[in-house]
Write a structure and sequence with these properties.
The chain is 56% helix and 11% strand. The radius of gyration is 30 Å and the shape is globular. By secondary structure, the protein is of the alpha/beta class. It has 22 helices and 14 strands. The protein binds one RNA strand through helix 2, helix 14, helix 15, strand 14 and helix 17.
Length: 598
RNA sequence: GGCCCCGUAGCUCAGUGGAUAGAGCAAUUGCCUUCUAAGCAAUAGGCCACACGUUCGAAUCGUGUCGGGGUCACCA
């Protein structure tokens, strides 16, 4: 039970004993005490004044006195300012909390609740390499999945690969037309970048042809339809849907190149999936499903043969489900997939990590499921996140203003190398150890940067300034961890394990920073719950930053190894060990690893 | 135009009903003969977009205005 909830129930109990009235935890607030006041937790009394017909002063003192009397081991003092009742937690209670939990690597994590949740994230297109926006998606999805696991859910990570459609044909056509048989190997290019380049080439050529036709006097709209390369692409899409062997072969070959490239990047950024779905397969499911819906009257056909659903009574529009020529659209495959997911995995919830430009799309999907009477319609959750914008404007692949994922990763690793060499603290590391350290720090900086802000908010990235390694950053927290490891090394493993085995923590009085740390460590439990409730890793990022910051103040103020007494050394050792465990655990939820030295 | 999201320090962001609104970066100033200075301590920086309302109490809730973004495709 958390400190806050202990106080809450103690207050409820005291109010009943004092005044014979039943209150609930929602009837009053328990907050942390602001630093400028004396105390650890504050009971806000305003809401209780009227029902109890008491003045703040009297209620505060009566309640404080009663709480103190009946919770002797827990509350050690109180003071009342206006309608704020400030409570002190006793040193003994804090120390017993610490001794009980300091070496629990699972501290804060919840036991299994048998809820099955799927988190779908990443979901790339196979015609362009990953960029900064995808990184936010990947880190978010992965982290949310881990946070849900930490809360006792059974979690499956999945990805739907967008491997079919006219956009894929574009890079295929361009390759046929311009590559002269070149391959990623022959050009020494990473597969996804190789294919992405042909997607760009398509657009260049298309633009050139359109301009040419316009110069010949054609109206622009007509030119856009008649550009030869576009006509070829549409023809190719038809042949693809027919399964024409040479097209399928090319398609397989080019997707293979892309997957190889993606795998490399996924490996570097630590994304993994329990299940990968392919749109080239799920769209068939979706089509089949539309056919059934047409039979039972859920959907209707227009004169041109296209299939629709009317969602206007839900405040949405009529929505197309199948084109007149029978080919499927974006939503078609989603309908097929959603049913498969829930049925195959017996899910209690399915979370889609998709950008907020698709809020409407996801609403439509939910509404369609509701209309069709699917029991899982309300178990579909869209975790929408804001776009990553650049200080120089939006990222547009066609205009070459994207921040490429692989480039950024390389840059982050180069930066961490640069910082590390400049500081010169790990000159004795082997090549291999150095390489691992640069990865740890570079990825840590990048992941933390993208996860520290509320997912729902748009965020701005300045490509001119590289991601910082100081302050509210991953490396700052990793550094705190490394410092603690250094303390433990200094004391010597044998000695500190001996000290930890000694459960008799007899301390005169806790110093302010020692108290702050223990109280803040306890809040990790709550941070994990909150992060899961909000599907928001930034809760963890903010928490662990604050923890590291508090520890660094403590570290500067008090010595652990050379503490003023054996008891103090022992106490601070416990605090340090638990801080290191919670830092490691928090960062793990963000997909960030910790170095022993840096 | 309809619907949705956002507006907090020069910049990037916390805080979403409680006390004098907080961090980081950038700026200025101290602190390495004592566990790692990727750190610590301090100074400075705010009509929380604006107006009205609800409340004992509003950055937080409601309504309106202004500003920014998204979406409303036989694109994905």
């Amino acid at each position: 039970m958390s400190f806050t909830s202990i106080i809450q129930s103690a207050v409820v109990k005291s109010l009943e004993e004092l005044y014979g009235q039943q209150f609930f935890e929602k009837d009053f607030q328990v907050n942390e005490t602001k630093p400028e006041f004396e105390g650890d937790y504050t009971v806000v009394l305003f809401a209780l004044l009227k029902p109890l017909k008491k003045s703040p002063e009297i209620l505060g003192n009566e309640l404080g006195k009663h709480l103190l009397k009946n919770n002797a081991g827990f509350i050690s003092g109180y003071n009342v300012i206006k309608a704020f009742l400030n409570l002190n937690i006793s040193d003994e209670f804090l120390i017993s909390f610490l001794t009980k939990n300091y070496n629990d690597v699972c501290f804060g994590k919840k036991s299994l609740n048998h809820k099955k949740v799927m988190v779908e994230y990443s979901s790339p297109n196979t015609n362009k390499p990953l960029h900064l926006g995808h990184l936010r998606n990947n880190f978010l999805g992965w982290s949310v999945a881990e946070i849900l696991k930490a809360n006792g859910n059974e979690v499956y990570k999945s990805s739907i690969v967008n491997d079919r459609g006219i956009h894929i044909c574009k890079s295929m056509i361009a390759w046929q037309q311009f590559a002269n048989g070149a391959t990623p190997d022959s050009t020494d290019t990473k597969g996804d970048h190789f294919v992405g380049d042909y997607y760009v080439k398509f657009n260049d050529e298309y633009k050139r042809e359109v301009d040419e036709l316009v110069d010949e006097g054609k109206p622009e709209a007509e030119a856009e339809k008649e550009a030869p390369i576009m006509k070829k692409t549409q023809q190719m899409l038809l042949e693809w849907e027919e399964g024409k062997p040479d097209i399928m072969e090319l398609w397989n070959k080019m997707n293979g190149w892309v997957y190889k490239g993606f795998d490399e990047t996924y490996k570097r950024i630590g994304s993994d999936f329990d299940q990968t779905f392919y749109e080239s397969q799920t769209y068939i499911l979706g089509k089949e499903f539309v056919r059934k819906g047409l039979e039972d009257g859920s959907f209707y056909k227009k004169e041109d043969g296209s299939v629709w659903i009317d969602l206007s009574d839900a405040g949405l529009d009529e929505k197309l489900l199948l084109r007149g020529d029978g080919t499927s659209v974006y939503i078609t495959q989603d309908i097929g997939l959603v049913k498969q997911k829930f049925e195959d995995y017996n899910l209690d919830e399915s979370i889609y990590v998709i950008g907020d430009e698709q809020i409407y799309h996801m609403k439509v999907l939910k509404e369609i499921c509701r209309k069709l009477g699917f029991p899982f319609a309300d178990k579909i959750l869209h975790l929408s996140y804001g776009m990553v914008e650049l200080t120089t404007g939006k990222m547009k692949s066609r205009e070459g203003t994207v921040v490429d994922a692989d480039d950024l990763i390389d840059e982050m690793i180069a930066t961490s190398k640069h910082h590390t060499e400049e500081l010169g603290k790990v000159k004795d590391f082997t090549e291999e150890e150095l390489k691992a350290l640069y990865e740890t720090l570079g990825m840590g900086a990048m992941k933390f940067y993208l996860l520290r802000v509320d997912p729902k908010k748009r965020m701005v990235f300045n490509p001119e300034e590289s991601i910082d390694f100081h302050g509210f950053t991953g490396p700052f927290i990793q550094y705190t961890y490394a410092r603690i490891q250094s303390i433990l090394r200094k004391i010597g493993e044998v000695n500190w394990q001996w000290a930890m085995g000694n459960e008799q923590l007899v301390i005169g009085k806790l110093l302010p920073l020692e108290r702050d740390l223990i109280i803040f460590l306890e809040k990790y439990d709550n941070a994990i719950s909150q992060a899961a409730e909000e599907l928001n890793p930034s809760v963890i990022a903010n928490y662990v930053f604050h923890l590291a910051k508090t520890f660094n103040s403590f570290y500067a103020e008090h010595s652990v190894a050379n503490a003023e007494s054996e008891e103090k050394r022992n106490l601070r050792l416990h605090i340090s060990v638990m801080t290191a465990i919670v830092i490691k655990s928090s960062l793990q939820l963000l997909g960030i690893t910790v170095p022993r030295r840096m």
